[in-house]
Amino acid sequence: MGGAALSPRRPWDGRHVVLGVTGGIAAYKVVSLARDLTQLGAVVDVVLTNAARAFVGAITFEAVTGRPVRTDILAPGFALYHIRLAREADVICVAPATAHTLARAAAGAAPDFLSAILLATRAPVLLCPAMNDRMWAHARVQANAARVRELGYTLVGPAIGPLAFGEGEGPGRMEEPEVVLEHIGRALEGTSPLTGRRVIVTAGPTREPIDAVRFVSNRSSGRMGYAIAQAAWRRGADVTLVTGPTALPAPVGTAIVSVETAAQMQEAVAGALPGADVLVMAAAVADFRPARIAVGKIKKEARPDAIALEPAPDVLRETRAVRPPGLVAVGFALETDNARANARAKLAAKGLDLVVLNDATVPGAGFEVETNQVVLLDRAGGAEELPLLPKDVVAEAILDRVVTLLPER
After folding, report:
1. CA distance 409 to 399
2. Considering 50, 218, 342, 372, which one is annotated as catalytic?
3. Which position among 57, 152, 163, 172 has the lowest Cβ density within 10 Å, counted as fewest Cβ atoms?
4. CATH 3.40.50.1950 spans which residues of the chain?
């Protein structure tokens, strides 16, 4: 999320995040994390260790959060401030978490402001390890990592990638801010009706080959399906994303199945369906495909006068025979005329619980944009009209409806 400006939204809006920063070179990444959390509506209190101040100054964090930075447990007038922050926090995230920090947390030591907060809080705690790969591999560090997990802390990372200058690549790199941000969101969601549920989401376009280099496709960007998959994971779901070709980064925490054709998507969805609780078919699956695929590349001088088309597999309809009992099935209907009537017909014909109607004629909605305006149509005849909203917000509204349709466990 680190590029464009963000707006307050669930689950960060109005929540209190304590962001602990310790003395590692990855401390510079945490500035953008603090900024993004603040733009998403969170109240962010940054706590710097003495070592962290050698890498990033307090004034930098104050500039992006609009709040004073805490450093010293013995500061006059703040004798019990670590207790206050520990009580007020909805989540505590330590990024980067150095080997020294992990050791302190594992031992329950509290020599500074940040480690005292960790002992006093009952909020979820996320630790984001960052160190040299040899340090991370050390038996003592691994034992400390195992111990903090036993204590109920969540480790986010480390990632595999470039380390400090001259150290090459390996496991030990701090996860990127956008990844940490999503883990904070999952912690803020806590236990929800989707926790532990298996959710399958399809997204993006399909490509139907004409020859070895050309294909028939559509303008879907995949943004809507990716937003739904990410929001479902934040709510605690076990998410499988079956995706056609897109330029989007994979949603954090999701299992990705990449496909190209409608037939491949049908096979992938059928394989993921056993044991699933929710199916959200947000992909723009091709309705037609070339009846014959040329071998190699069609030369310009041998171009055909026409390309014969045949129906592509109807992925959503074909799932009916293999849907588990109690599955909540959601389809999308992109329409340009007779929108509601066509969407209602799709809901009935494909045995859906909910249809998300997307009128392609509405400015700012549909493909290749970051907003959408939809109507949620259910089997009982209900219709919920949403205004033009960012697709991330639309995703939350769709999942709010999905959870009302889930059978009791």
Report:
1. 17
2. 218
3. 152
4. 16-189
Whether residue 218 lies in the annotated active site: yes
Strands 125-129 and 91-97: parallel
Burial environment of residue 385 by CB neighbours within 10 A (0 to 12, 13 to 18, 19 or more):
exposed
For 131, phi then psi, to 5°, come to -170, 175
Tokens for 252?
């954090």
* Topology, domain 16-189: Rossmann fold (3.40.50)
2 pLDDT above the threshold of 50: no
* Distance (Å, whole) CA 386 – CA 381: 16
Map tokens 């592509």 to a residue.
312
Longest CA pairwise span in the chain (Å): 84
At residue 79, does pLDDT exceed 60?
Answer: no
Mean pLDDT of 293-301: 87
- DSSP-assigned letters across all residues of 3-19: SS-----TTTTT-EEEE
DSSP classification of residue 217: -
Question: Residue 257's CB: how many other CB atoms inside 10 A?
Answer: 18
Superfamily of domain 198-405: CoaB-like (3.40.50.10300)
